[in-house]
TrEMBL record:
GO cellular component terms listed in the entry, alphabetical order: phosphopantothenoylcysteine decarboxylase complex
Organism expressing this protein natively: Anaerococcus hydrogenalis DSM 7454
InterPro entries: CoaBC, Flavin_trans-like, Flavoprotein
The organism's place on the tree of life at top rank: Bacteria
GO biological process: coenzyme A biosynthetic process; pantothenate catabolic process
SUPFAM superfamilies: Homo-oligomeric flavin-containing Cys decarboxylases, HFCD
Name of the protein in its database record: Flavoprotein
GO MF, one annotated term: phosphopantothenate--cysteine ligase activity
Pfam families tied to this protein: Flavoprotein
Residue intervals of the Flavoprotein domain: 5-172
Lineage: Bacteria, Bacillati, Bacillota, Tissierellia, Tissierellales
Length: 182
């Protein structure tokens, strides 16, 4: 059910951004149409060129650089059938929760009137912090779909919750979403 669907993929800063390259590849193999927005932090972890290559599309990362023929933070969400943010960092989560639109991704999220699906990933302490838990609760109450993170060894050498769900399972989630329209 992913074939022919327009998926707007937001990539926020976090080491799990490298796993999203595999997600892009899988979504393209399933026949999805992709457009990608990366935060500056995400660009520090993985090159936009890598995402352009895997997603076979333009990567947007700066509202004020290039691409001025359209208002992309408005147009991209209109194009999408669904807006997926993976990985969702604590920073981008907080911006979503409070309507802060200070970068291309957060402005596009604020302008989106389609379903939003997020895959949070961060250090266990950050994830379990009261502020983060309250933010997750608030966005869930607003109807945002949350793909819960896994437990395991994190990049910071700690064990606990906070690992981004595996790309294969995110693809399965999207397939179920489009089939059942959860």
């Amino acid at each position: 059910m992913i074939k022919g669907k327009n998926i707007l993929l937001g990539v926020s800063g976090g080491i799990a951004a490298y796993k999203v390259l595999e997600l892009c590849s899988s979504l393209k193999k399933e026949g999805a149409n992709l457009k990608i927005i990366m935060t500056k932090g995400a660009c520090e972890f993985v090159s936009p060129l890598s995402f352009e290559t895997m997603g076979k599309c333009i990567v947007y990362s700066d509202m004020f650089e290039g691409h001025h023929d359209r208002v992309y933070h408005i147009d991209l969400p209109k194009w999408a059938d669904v807006f997926l943010v993976a990985p969702l960092s604590a920073n981008t989560l907080a911006k979503m929760t409070y309507g802060i639109a200070d970068n291309m991704l957060s402005a596009s999220l604020l302008a989106c009137d389609k379903d939003i699906i997020v895959a949070p990933t961060m250090n266990t302490n950050m994830l379990n912090n009261k502020a983060t838990q309250e933010n997750l609760k608030k966005i869930k109450e607003r109807g945002i779909h949350i793909i819960n993170p896994n437990s395991g060894l994190l990049a910071c050498d700690t064990r606990g919750d906070g690992r981004m769900e595996e790309p294969v399972n995110i693809v399965k989630y999207l397939d179920y979403y489009f089939t059942k329209k959860i």
